[in-house]
Amino acid sequence: MHAASAAEHGGSVVEPVPEVEHKSRLLVHTVPSCCYRTIHSDAKPKDPFTLAQSDLKSLYDDIRKELFVSKEELKFLCDYYFDGKGKAIRPMIVVLMARALNIHSNRAGDLLPGQRAIAMISEMIHTASLVHDDVIDGSDKRRGKNTINNMWGERKAILVGDFILSAASMALARIGNITVVKVLSQVIEDLVRGEFMQLGSKENENERFKHYLEKTFKKTASLIANSCKAVSILVNSDPEVHEIAYQYGKNVGIAFQLVDDVLDFTSGASHLGKPTAADLKLGLATGPVLFACQQFPELHAMIMRRFSTKGDVDRAWQYVLQSDGVQQTNYLAQRYCQEAIRQVSMLRPSPERDALIRLTEMVLTRDK
Amino acid sequence: MFSRLSCRTLSSRGQRTLSLFSSSGSSNWTKVVSDAEKIVGYPTSFMSLRCLLSDELSNVAMHVRKLVGTQHPLLNTARGFVYDSKNNLQMRGLVVLLLSKAAGPSHAASDLLTQDMVSGIYPSQRNLAEITELIHTAFLVHRGIVNLKEWTVSDGPLKDMQFGNKMAVLSGDFLLANACTGLAQLDNTKVVEMISSAIGDIVQGLYYENSNNVEENSLTDGIDMAAWEEQAFLSHGALLAKSCQAAMELAKHNEKSQRMAYMYGKHLSLGHKLNYDLQPFVKSTGEPATFSFSAAPVVFHRKIVGEETWQRQLQQLLAAVKSEKGVSSAVDLCCYHGNKALEAIQAFPSSEARSALENIASAITKF
């Protein structure tokens, strides 16, 4: 099928896309404004990590400087996850997108200070939410370390999350652009609403999937989408460019979470640094389970009772692995990546733009 | 340090020592607040209604009902929202509104139109008042989280505590998130920065809130008044102080107004905290009072009498505190802050709103 083969070719698809014509005024014009476009630029696609490295090198140091607090223990806990050992996917996407947008907007690629700040802020907001999620989920490990709530208690963990959030807000305000503040504040709200969405289960099967995708957007994709949008606002006033950045972030974010949900079923505990079937154990029905329902209707009742009966988790896991739930979820992730590629390809070619395309492949093929 | 505790600045203060232990304190407070509410146009208790009626919080309310019969602190916090008490739920918002009104219309060239004012307050200032309450409430809720490792069988089923925690985290986060988006809508990055820093202050103030308790910190010497004030400012003063300043910034009032508004908010909060801490020590109802070891009179008493005496008096604690000078020191400090707040508010033109603020500042020094 069309979309699947595109993924197999590693993204170098040439396809006719009628709607690009009215956008050709926007494209800066090394690309011929005929009705199709090549996605690869002439240079070889570069590795996203390498390209982003110089910008990200001091990212964690700078974040720690924002977490200015006199009390030693609080400082230690605020810094706890900013040890440079995280994947830093979000800041990486942000800096690459920022550079790609800067080039698209006829400037040098270098990051504006505000764009750099947004990379930091996105990671801070993400981390703050993780700290709270660990309390909500009762997790005792994250990234191979003991969680803050496990070691220092739930009360301090919550305060630490609140503090990181306040520091992120202050840094956000200091950029001085109120539109950027609005865009990223929305993320904070989306994160909480996404968490609330996980509290309930939907009866109707069709509603369930829609609910799952909406929750996935709020909990994962919103941050990436809005961070991309924010960096675009700082360099470009064209709302269509903002939309390109947003859509790339949104689609790659959803794909990222879908793959994460798959890995929860397919990878071993030691690989991820956290136990597997974690979602099932929390009572959550993710993509693979929802797809597997079609072949194993027994899963309906289990989903409604949030896998709370003894043996549910194991049985559900078995059903999923026997079904094509994993494959279907992966395929869906591919389609989101395709859309992400389609969007970002509307930007002027640059190594960073190609790295963003390459990144979608990496999202699909990662094993941890 | 003690020199500033003398309350001899205004002659009317002489009256104060006589009325210090009168029981008409609480009805006076209620009247002051209800008069003030009329000035700003509506009972501020309903301010966060829109947020409280949201789907998410209705959802939480449903879940919180399951906590009835358990010992999770969230239940008490939730109960407190329904049953008003002397420590008025929406006092901060009320003060922000009054101050906005007292400061009058904007004199700077700005987009602020007099016709947008309702009861003399700009919409952005009203929204700020609401945001202040959201943040305050969020932390009330977050403080109700329990450390699960300290759970004992007498706390009831562990899963109740886990569930209560989950609800507390989520609802607190929801309120904070709404505060953040609300702040963004004020269209002023300075204000966003100010209020965000207040959130950071609250965290720092609360972080060691429990470590003043004897159970956790019996090896230390106790803290002195300056340290107490610093702590109390972070946890109880920063939010109101910075919100008051922010209200002035929203109307583009000058730096002096901002500073005085900040001072009013700061000193009022500290005085209010002292008043609150003093309640068990100045009331003479027959029932046994509960109080925190981090309450001001206790903290000051401990430093004054020394550690040995403190340990000995633990058994007779309430009576012992009353019999020493901790209570009057705290009362004096409360008067000091009340006076400073009154001084600060003089910077604003005379008005009904300003009088209401003066009354509030005076009321906190009455016991």
Automatic annotation (TrEMBL), chain A:
Q: Partners and quaternary state?
A: Heterotetramer composed of 2 PDSS1/DPS1 and 2 PDSS2/DLP1 subunits.
Source organism: Collichthys lucidus
Q: What is its main location?
A: mitochondrion
List GO BP terms, alphabetically: isoprenoid biosynthetic process; ubiquinone biosynthetic process
Q: In which pathway does it act?
A: Cofactor biosynthesis; ubiquinone biosynthesis
Enzyme class name: transferase
The protein's Enzyme Commission number: 2.5.1.91
Q: Which cofactor does it need?
A: Mg(2+)
Q: What is the protein's known function?
A: Heterotetrameric enzyme that catalyzes the condensation of farnesyl diphosphate (FPP), which acts as a primer, and isopentenyl diphosphate (IPP) to produce prenyl diphosphates of varying chain lengths and participates in the determination of the side chain of ubiquinone. Supplies nona and decaprenyl diphosphate, the precursors for the side chain of the isoprenoid quinones ubiquinone-9 (Q9)and ubiquinone-10 (Q10) respectively. The enzyme adds isopentenyl diphosphate molecules sequentially to farnesyl diphosphate with trans stereochemistry.
Say if the entry is tagged with keyword Mitochondrion.
yes
Which reaction equation describes what this protein catalyses? 6 isopentenyl diphosphate + (2E,6E)-farnesyl diphosphate = all-trans-nonaprenyl diphosphate + 6 diphosphate; 7 isopentenyl diphosphate + (2E,6E)-farnesyl diphosphate = all-trans-decaprenyl diphosphate + 7 diphosphate
GO MF, any single term:
metal ion binding
Q: Which family does it belong to?
A: Belongs to the FPP/GGPP synthase family.
InterPro entries per the record?
Answer: Isoprenoid_synthase_dom_sf (IPR008949), Polyprenyl_synt (IPR000092), Polyprenyl_synt_CS (IPR033749)
Which region is the signal sequence?
A: none
Q: Does the keyword Ligase apply?
A: no
Listed SUPFAM superfamilies: Terpenoid synthases
A Pfam match is: polyprenyl_synt
- Where is this protein found? Mitochondrion
> Got a GO cellular component term for this one?
heterotetrameric polyprenyl diphosphate synthase complex
| Name this protein carries in UniProt | All trans-polyprenyl-diphosphate synthase PDSS1
Instruction: Cite the entry's keywords alphabetically.
Output: Isoprene biosynthesis, Lipid metabolism, Magnesium, Metal-binding, Mitochondrion, Transferase
UniProtKB/TrEMBL annotation, chain B:
UniProt KW Transferase keyword = yes
In terms of superkingdom, the source organism counts as Eukaryota
Q: What Pfam families does the annotation carry?
A: polyprenyl_synt (PF00348)
Q: Which GO terms describe its molecular function?
A: prenyltransferase activity
- Give an example GO biological process: ubiquinone biosynthetic process
Query: Could you tell me which InterPro entries the record lists for this protein?
Result: Isoprenoid_synthase_dom_sf (IPR008949), Polyprenyl_synt (IPR000092)
Provide GO CC annotations from the record: mitochondrion; transferase complex
- Write the record's keywords in alphabetical order, separated by commas: Transferase
> What family does the database annotate?
Belongs to the FPP/GGPP synthase family.
This chain belongs to which protein, by name?
Decaprenyl-diphosphate synthase subunit 2
* Organism the protein comes from: Collichthys lucidus
